[in-house]
Specification:
Oligomer: single chain
Largest sheet: 6 strands, mixed
Shape: globular
Radius of gyration: 31 Å
C-alpha cells in the first residue's frame, strides 16, 4: 500500500466539532445537547447501544439531517446547510454499513460518479480507477460491475472513493460486520495508513475488542446523551465501556457453559456432503451443545448451514433420527425439525412490514387456528409469552418488525423459530449489528435452547463469539473442515490462526471481481438487444420465405408505421422503468392526446395552426407526467397506485371530451408521417435517432450516469447527494411527452381520435420494454431495446395477420416470447437482474 503520509489537514485542533446538538423526531428526543470533537490523525471510536443516537449524530455530521439546535464545524468551517454535498466539500465522508455503491455500474463508473474522473483528460477512466485502488493493494478490476464484488471488496472501493476525495474525516459504520478475519486485518492496515496522513477516522462498532485494537480515543452515547467523551482507550476497559453504554455493569456477556459429561446424542449426521462450495464434509450435530462454524468468508461454512436448511443443493447424506433427508427442500428440512435464522434479517429472516405477532406465529399457525380461522387470542398469548422470554423492547406486538432495532429484530427472528417444533437450530451471524445488551440476551437464549436438548449451530465471523459461546467448533477452508476444536481447546488465536493459514479465500482464488470475456458479454446491457435483433431477423425471414407478398417494401414500411406509436409509448415506459417504476397511465395518455389533436383541430384548425395544435397535444402529455410526478414524489403515493388512478381519470376526461370515436386529424400531420425515406417512414427513423441519442446520454453524459445510479440504487444516489426525487419527476414528465408523441402518431395513422383505443398501449409498452431487456427493478438495459421490442410486437401482429391466424395467435406468440425473453435474460444476467435488495 502506498498511501502518502503527507498531512492533508489544516493545522487545527479538531477536524470535526459538533456543539450542543439536539434532535427530536416528533415528541421523541433522539439527541440531547450532545457535543463531540475529533482530532486530526486519530481513530475515534463512537459506541453505544442500538437507538443510542449514533446514526442520528453522524447523519447530522454528514448533512443528511438538520439538527434542531447546535452547530457543526468540519475542518474549521461551519456546515451551513443539511447537504451531503456540503459536508463532502468540507472534507467529511461516510462509509455506511450497507453499501452506498450503485450495483449496476462498474467500479470505475462508481468512482467517477462521486469523484468526477481524472483531472488529466488524456487519462483513461479505467487506468485512473486502477491507480486509486492500487493505493489500497486492491486487486479489483475497475471494469467489474459492483454487483459482482464481495462485501469486503465493496468496502475497499467505498473507502478508496472517500480517501481519493481527500476526506479529512472518514466515518466507518460497523465496517467489520460482514468481514472475515484476514479481511479485518487488511482493513486495520488501511485505517492506520489513512490516519498517518492526518485524516481522522470515526469508528462505529459493537465489537469492543476492535476498539482496544485500533482506536486512540472513545466516546459513548447513551439514550441520546454523551456520557463519555474522548477518553483515551488506554485508560479504559471493556467492563468500563459496557457500564457507560448500558448504565450498569455486566459481569458476564457470555453465559456459563454447563459440563457436558459423556457422549451426547446425535441430532443430525452429515456424511460426505458435496455442493458448489462443499467438498466431502462430514459432521455430527449433537443435542445439548452449541456447535460453532468458523472460517474465512466464502470457504463453505455458510453453504453447509444452508444445505442443512434445504436452501442449497447437495449430494451425500444427511440423517436425522435415523432417516435420510432428501436434498434441497426447505419444507422437508423444516418438517424434519430444522429451523434457520438467516443473517439476512430483512431479506430472509423477517417479514418487515408485518407485525411482530405475525412474524412470530406465521411459521406455525396450526395450534393457534380452528378450522380455517386463526384464533387471535391464542396467537396473541403465545406472542406475549415469547416477547417476555426474549425481553423484547417494542411498543406493541402489532408494531412492524422492520421498525425495530437490530437486536430486537434478531430476537423476533429467533422467536419465530422457537415457536415451532424444531430440534435443530441453525443461527447465521446471531449478533451481527447487535449491541452489547441485546448480544448478552441472545447468547442466553441460545444457551437455553441447547440446555433444553436442542442442537444449536452458530455460524459467526466473530472468533471471540465462537470461542466463548460454543461447546465445539469446526473450521472450514476451501469447502472442507480442516480442524474441529473441543471446548477445552477453543480460543480466538487458535481459530483465527487455523482459518488464516489453512485457507485461501475462495473469492480471491476464483478471481472474484475479475471476469472472463464471456461474462462481459453475458451481463452486458447490449446482449438482450442483440438477441432480440436475431429473433426479429428470424421472424422476418420466416415470413419472407413462407408467406406470399410478405417480403415487399410496402409491407415492411407498414410494419414500421404500425410499430411507430408503440415505439414512442415504449420509450415513455422505459423512462420510468429505468428508475425501477412502472407507469400504467401511458396508454390513456396516448389516447387523450388523440382526442386533444382532433378537438383542437375542430376548434379552428388550419394549416397555419398545425404546430400550435401539436404543441398543445404534447403539452397535455407533459402535464399528465408532471401530475404523476407530483403524486409519486410529493404526495408519496406508490407509483403503481398513483398511475392506476391517473389511468382511470384520463379515461374519464377523454370520454367526457370525446364520447365516441371521431373527429378529424389535421391533414398535414397525416401526410407528414406517411413520408418515407426509401422504405423507412421518416418519423420511425427519427425515433431511432432519438433512442440512440438517449442511449448515448444514458451511458456517457453526467446526467445519464446519475440517472442510472438512481435506477440501480436509490439509497446510494441519495447518499451521493443526487436529487433523486427531481430525477423521478423528470422521468414522469418525459414519459408523458413520449406517450403524447405516440398518441399523435397513432391518431395520424387511423385518422380519428379515440379516448380508449390507446389503452392497450400500457400492457404492450411493458411487453416491449421487457422484450428489449430492461430490468423491471431499474438500472439495467439499453434505451434502444424497447424500440426493437415494439418493432418485434408489430412484426408478430403482421405475421399472424398474413397467416389469418386471428388475434388470439398474436397474443399467444407475443406472450410466449415475452416469457422466453424474461427467462433468458434472467439466466444470462443472474440474480442481479432480479435483485431488489438495494432498493
Amino acid at each position: 500500500m502506498t498511501i502518502q503520509s503527507t498531512s492533508i489537514v489544516p493545522d487545527i485542533e479538531n477536524v470535526l466539532a459538533m456543539a450542543d446538538i439536539s434532535k427530536s423526531f416528533g415528541l421523541v428526543a433522539v439527541l440531547r445537547h450532545v457535543s463531540f470533537a475529533v482530532r486530526p490523525g486519530e481513530v475515534h471510536a463512537l459506541v453505544g447501544e442500538n437507538g443510542a443516537g449514533k446514526s442520528t449524530l453522524m447523519n447530522i455530521a454528514c448533512g443528511v439531517l438538520r439538527p434542531d439546535t447546535g452547530t457543526v464545524d468540519i475542518c474549521g468551517a461551519p456546515l451551513l446547510s443539511a447537504s451531503s454535498h456540503a459536508s463532502k466539500a468540507l472534507g467529511l465522508s461516510v462509509v455506511f454499513q450497507d453499501s452506498s455503491l450503485a450495483p449496476d455500474l462498474t467500479v470505475a463508473q462508481n468512482l467517477q460518479l462521486d469523484l468526477g474522473g481524472p483531472g488529466d483528460p488524456a487519462m483513461d477512466i479505467v487506468e485512473w480507477s486502477r491507480r486509486i485502488l492500487g493505493e489500497f493493494d486492491a486487486r479489483i478490476d475497475p471494469t467489474t460491475f459492483v454487483r459482482n464484488l464481495s462485501v469486503a471488496e465493496k468496502q475497499i472501493v467505498e473507502i478508496a472513493r472517500a480517501v481519493a476525495s481527500q476526506a479529512r474525516v472518514l466515518v466507518l459504520d460497523e465496517p467489520t460486520a460482514a468481514l472475515a478475519a484476514n479481511e479485518v486485518k487488511h482493513l486495520y492496515d488501511i485505517i492506520r495508513k489513512i490516519t498517518q496522513r492526518g485524516s481522522a477516522v470515526i469508528y462505529i462498532t459493537h465489537r469492543l475488542p476492535e476498539i482496544f485494537e485500533l482506536a486512540d480515543r472513545a466516546s459513548v452515547l447513551r439514550n441520546g446523551e454523551m456520557v463519555l467523551h474522548g477518553k483515551p482507550v488506554s485508560e479504559l476497559t471493556e467492563a468500563l465501556l459496557i457500564e457507560h453504554m448500558i448504565g450498569r455493569s455486566v459481569e458476564m456477556i457470555f453465559p456459563e457453559r454447563p459440563d457436558l459429561a459423556g457422549e451426547l446424542p446425535v441430532a443430525a449426521r452429515a456424511t460426505g456432503l458435496c455442493g458448489a462450495m462443499l467438498n466431502d464434509v462430514s459432521l455430527d450435530l449433537r443435542r445439548g451443545e452449541i456447535l460453532g462454524l468458523f472460517g474465512i468468508e466464502g470457504n463453505g461454512q455458510r453453504d453447509f448451514l444452508r444445505s442443512l436448511a434445504g436452501l442449497e443443493p447437495w449430494t451425500g447424506s444427511i440423517e436425522i433420527g435415523g432417516e435420510r433427508l432428501q436434498p434441497a427442500s426447505p419444507p422437508k428440512s423444516v418438517g424434519a425439525g430444522i429451523s434457520l435464522v438467516s443473517s439476512d434479517r430483512l431479506g430472509e429472516a423477517l417479514f418487515p412490514r408485518m407485525s411482530i405477532r405475525e412474524n412470530i406465529t406465521s411459521g406455525r399457525l396450526g395450534p393457534r387456528s380452528q378450522g380455517y380461522l386463526i384464533r387471535r387470542g391464542a396467537e396473541v398469548a403465545k406472542t406475549l409469552d415469547l416477547a417476555e422470554m426474549l425481553n423484547l423492547a417494542a411498543a406493541s406486538t402489532e408494531q412492524p418488525a422492520g421498525s425495530l432495532s437490530g437486536g430486537n429484530q434478531q430476537k423476533v427472528s429467533i422467536g419465530a423459530v422457537m415457536n415451532g417444533d424444531a430440534s435443530i437450530y441453525l443461527i447465521d451471524e446471531p449478533t451481527q449489528g447487535v449491541d452489547i445488551n441485546a448480544r448478552a440476551m441472545l447468547y442466553t437464549i441460545l444457551r437455553r435452547l441447547a440446555d433444553a436438548g436442542a442442537a444449536v449451530v452458530v455460524l459467526s465471523s466473530d472468533a471471540a463469539e465462537i470461542a466463548h459461546l460454543c461447546d465445539r467448533a469446526a473450521v472450514f477452508s476451501r469447502g472442507r473442515i480442516v480442524e474441529t476444536f473441543p471446548r477445552d481447546r477453543l480460543d480466538e488465536d487458535r481459530l483465527v490462526g487455523i482459518a488464516v493459514t489453512a485457507a485461501v479465500n475462495t473469492g480471491e482464488a476464483a478471481g472474484r471481481g475479475r471476469r472472463s470475456r464471456y461474462d462481459d458479454i453475458r451481463q452486458s446491457d447490449a446482449t438482450p438487444v442483440v438477441i432480440l435483433a436475431i429473433i426479429a431477423t428470424g421472424l422476418y425471414l420466416f415470413g419472407a420465405l413462407s408467406l406470399q407478398g410478405f417480403a415487399t417494401a410496402w409491407t415492411f414500411s407498414n410494419i414500421l408505421m404500425a410499430a411507430l406509436p408503440l415505439c414512442c409509448v415504449a420509450l415513455a415506459q422505459a423512462s420510468v422503468m429505468l428508475l425501477g417504476e412502472i407507469d400504467l397511465s401511458v396508454g390513456p395518455t396516448a389516447g387523450l392526446t388523440t382526442v386533444a389533436l382532433v378537438q383542437f383541430n375542430a376548434m379552428g384548425g388550419n394549416e397555419t395552426a398545425v404546430l400550435p395544435i401539436i404543441a398543445g397535444a404534447l403539452l397535455i402529455g407533459v402535464l399528465v407526467g408532471v401530475a404523476n410526478g407530483f403524486l409519486t414524489q410529493v404526495l408519496r403515493i406508490a407509483p403503481l397506485m398513483a398511475t392506476l388512478a391517473t389511468f382511470i381519470l384520463l379515461q374519464g376526461v377523454g370520454l367526457l371530451w370525446l364520447p365516441l370515436q371521431g373527429g378529424v386529424v389535421p391533414e398535414p400531420v397525416s401526410e407528414a408521417i406517411r413520408t418515407n425515406i426509401w422504405v423507412f417512414p421518416w418519423p420511425f427513423l427519427g425515433i431511432v435517432v432519438i433512442g440512440a441519442g438517449l442511449e448515448f446520454a444514458y451511458r456517457r453524459l453526467p446526467f445519464g450516469r446519475r440517472y442510472r445510479c438512481v435506477g440501480s440504487s436509490p439509497k446510494a444516489a441519495r447518499r451521493l447527494g443526487i436529487r433523486e426525487r427531481w430525477m423521478r419527476f423528470a422521468a414522469y414528465a418525459a414519459a408523458g411527452f413520449f406517450a403524447a408523441c405516440g398518441g399523435i402518431f397513432f391518431a395520424a395513422s387511423i385518422g380519428i381520435g379515440s379516448a380508449t383505443l390507446g389503452n392497450d398501449f400500457t400492457l404492450q409498452s411493458i411487453a416491449a420494454v421487457v422484450l428489449g431487456g430492461l430490468s423491471t427493478w431499474g438500472g439495467r438495459g439499453s434505451v434502444l431495446g424497447p424500440i426493437l421490442g415494439a418493432f418485434v410486437l408489430a412484426l408478430i401482429a403482421t405475421l399472424t395477420s398474413f397467416m389469418n391466424a386471428g388475434a388470439s395467435a398474436q397474443y399467444f406468440v407475443s406472450g410466449g416470447l415475452t416469457i422466453l425473453a424474461i427467462t433468458l435474460y434472467s439466466r444470462l444476467r443472474g440474480d442481479a437482474f432480479r435483485d431488489a435488495a438495494v432498493r
